[in-house]
Amino acid sequence: MIYAQVHLTLPAWASTDIDPLARFDNDEARMRFVAGLARKNVELGTGGPFGAAIFDGDGRLVSIGVNRVMPQNCSLAHAEIMAFLTAQQRLQRFRLNEDGQRYVLVTSAQPCCQCYGASFWAGIDEMQIGARAEDVMSLTEFDEGPLPADWIGELEKRGVAVKRDILRDECRDVLAFYSASGGASY
Ligand SMILES: [Zn+2]
To answer: What pLDDT is stored for residue 184 in this prediction?
Structure first.
C-alpha cells in the first residue's frame, strides 16, 4: 500500500503538562524550559534528548517540539521540526513571521543539517541555541551532519539572528543524562 498521509504527534504530556499560554521573561528562562522538555522526553521514554520551542516577540510560547524519531519511525521528527510544524498549525500559516511579528526558535542543541535548512523557510527572526554540535557529537551517538562553514553568517544574512551557548552546561547535562541512561534505546 502506498501511504497517503503521515501523522506526527508530540507525546501525550505535551497536551497535559504544558501551559499553552506560558510566557517567559528572558533567554535563560526560555532555554531552561526547553532543556526541561528535552530531559522529560528522555525520562518518560517518549523520544531523544532534544527539545525546542517557538516564542513570539513578547516571550509567549507558541509551540513546543521534542525529538520523536524513534517512537514515530520518522527521521524528520527532530525537536526543531516538530516545533515548526506545530507552530505553523497553531498560527495557520507556513511562514511564521508573515504577520510582521517576531518569532524565536529556542533549541536545546545546535540544529543539525536538516533543521538548519528548515529554519530558512519557517519564518523565524532569531535562533537561540543551548549545546553546540560538538557537545552533541561528543556526548551522544548522533552525527549532526555538515553545515556551511559560515552557517551563522548565512542565517544572519537572511535576517535570522543567532545566539549560542545559552545555558550550554544545562543542555549538555541532558545529553549526558541520555547517554548514561541507555542512549540509543529511544
Ligand atoms: Zn535536526
So the answer is: 60
For the stretch 111-167, pLDDT in tens is 999 999 999 999 999 999 999 999 999 999 999 999 999 999 999 999 999 999 999
Residue 116 to residue 162: CA distance in whole angstroms: 12
N residues, the chain: 186
Ligand 1 centroid to Cα of residue 5, in Å, is: 22
Q: Domain ranges in the chain? A: 19-180
Helix or strand (DSSP H, E) at 64: strand 61-66
**From the CA of 29, how far away is ligand 1's center (Å)?**
22
In 3D, which of 84, 114, 79 has the Cα closest to residue 97? Answer: 84
Please provide the distance, in angstroms rounded to a whole number, between the alpha carbons at the two ends of the chain: 27
159 CA distance to ligand 1 middle (Å) = 20
Report CA(38)–ligand 1 centroid distance (Å). 13
Q: How far is the CA of 75 from the centre of ligand 1 (A)?
A: 9
Percent of the chain at pLDDT > 90 equals 97
pTM of structure: 0.96
In terms of CATH, what superfamily is 19-180? Cytidine Deaminase, domain 2 (3.40.140.10)
Query: How far away, in angstroms, is 162 Cα from ligand 1 center?
Result: 16
- In angstroms, what is the span from residue 67 Cα to ligand 1's centroid? 9
